[in-house]
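User: I'm putting together notes for a lab meeting next week and I want to include a structural view of one of the chains we've been expressing. I don't have a solved structure, so I'd like a prediction I can at least talk through. The sequence is below, exactly as it appears in our construct file.
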Amino acid sequence: MKTARERIIQYLQVKGEATPVEISRVLKTTPANIRHHLAVLMDEGAVEPVGLSSPRTRGRPPELYALVQNTHSHNLDGLASTLLQEILDKSPQENTEMTKTLARRMAGEDIQVTASLTQRLLYAVKRLNEMNYQAQWEAHSEAPRFVLGHCPYTAILPEHPELCQLDAFLLEELLKAPVLQTARLAKSPRGLPFCRFLIEG
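Assistant: Thanks for the context. Below is the predicted structure for the 201-residue chain, given as structure tokens.
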């Protein structure tokens, strides 16, 4: 059975553009519920506002939404999933080592271990945001916390949960410190998913 967001995407593929009220009628739910799902899809980069519909009553005309151009005109998700399956089709220990190798390559240019923790945190935020993680760090009484506000692998995460481990290894590479994941796809006050890591070093 398709999720509400999958049905919204499917509807926009056929319709091209629509208002939350139009989508809510088709999906038989409330416009507020549709706006929530559209906010998540916008955060994931799948949907965008494209203008205002023709006014039928007084007041501000409702906003139109459409799929981001080329969102579904490629097979990158399928390719990435197949490549991961090929790369990680080994023993658990070999898979862990391979995932660490991928994290090192993704981390890119190395930062000096002698850099302060604040410098490493800022560097990690910059590097991860280049990869669309919507990353930020927070001061905390125990230790700094690192928050990833967007998962770039949402489309293939169900088939490849090891990508969460990749995120942890990537953070450790960038921060030169061990991390502990304390939240996985938790919900923000806006209802958007995020992951949180505690920096242990």
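A couple of points you could mention at the meeting. The two ends are 44 Å apart (CA to CA). Helices lie at 4-15, 20-27, 31-43, 76-87, 92-107, 117-129, 162-175.

User: Perfect, that's what I needed.
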